[in-house]
Amino acid sequence: MQVTEAILAGTAVSPDRFPKDGLPEFALVGRSNVGKSSLINRLAMRKKLAHTSNTPGRTRTLNFYRINSRFYLVDLPGYGYAQVSKSERLRWGAMVENFLAHRESLAGVIHVIDLRHPPTADDRLMAEWLRAHDLAVLVVATKADKIARSRWESHRRQAEATLQPSRCVVFSAETGAGRDQVWTWVVERLSG
Ligand code: GDP
């Protein structure tokens, strides 16, 4: 996909600040620091659209990135960050679950995991929850550049078998590997 326009159209902590234009939305979920912001930047071919960080657990808002005035990528706060309080974790759960379960314009979920390791317990919980809610899920296994290419397919298969998404692709924000496959899935969802 040719991205001609990519803008942070809004940030929200509550539903009254969500966009009201009804454009389709693709939510990004994943463990804190897994590489969601880097994925967004690589997909959009913008270096600093989404703020990347070495410190996990920073993003507490839902960030709506509007692409080509046609759809949104919605960055949800990362899960599995141990350093937050229980009440904060509960608040995270309520906000994210509410969005994923009730958002009418939600066209699909991009579940970002780390290709190097088997899915974590948190990854599996997230996947189960998404399946129970009958959401179309693309698993993006990122940081592929950090392991040998010869191991990509076996790790991808393991993630696919464990999480059972609609599709599972290998990705690297560093090299751009897998970018076309992610966009293909998005475009399929938009036209289907
Ligand atoms: P987020 O918290 O999920 O948004 O994670 P970030 O996108 O901020 O990434 C966390 C760290 O992982 C940063 O230091 C990134 O540079 C690094 N990172 C993310 N994706 C990749 C990737 O595909 N390859 C490599 N080598 N590093 C990555």
From TrEMBL:
One annotated GO molecular function: metal ion binding
Source species of the chain: Kyrpidia tusciae (strain DSM 2912 / NBRC 15312 / T2)
Gene Ontology BP, a term: division septum assembly
Domain EngB-type G: 22-192
Superkingdom per UniProt: Bacteria
Annotated keywords: Cell cycle, Cell division, GTP-binding, Magnesium, Metal-binding, Nucleotide-binding, Septation
InterPro entries: G_ENGB_dom, GTP-bd, GTP-bd_ribosome_bio_YsxC, P-loop_NTPase, Small_GTP-bd
Gene3D superfamilies: P-loop containing nucleotide triphosphate hydrolases
Signal peptide: none
GO cellular component, one term: cytosol
Role: Necessary for normal cell division and for the maintenance of normal septation.
Required cofactor names: Mg(2+)
Protein family per UniProt: Belongs to the TRAFAC class TrmE-Era-EngA-EngB-Septin-like GTPase superfamily. EngB GTPase family.
Protein name, as recorded: Probable GTP-binding protein EngB
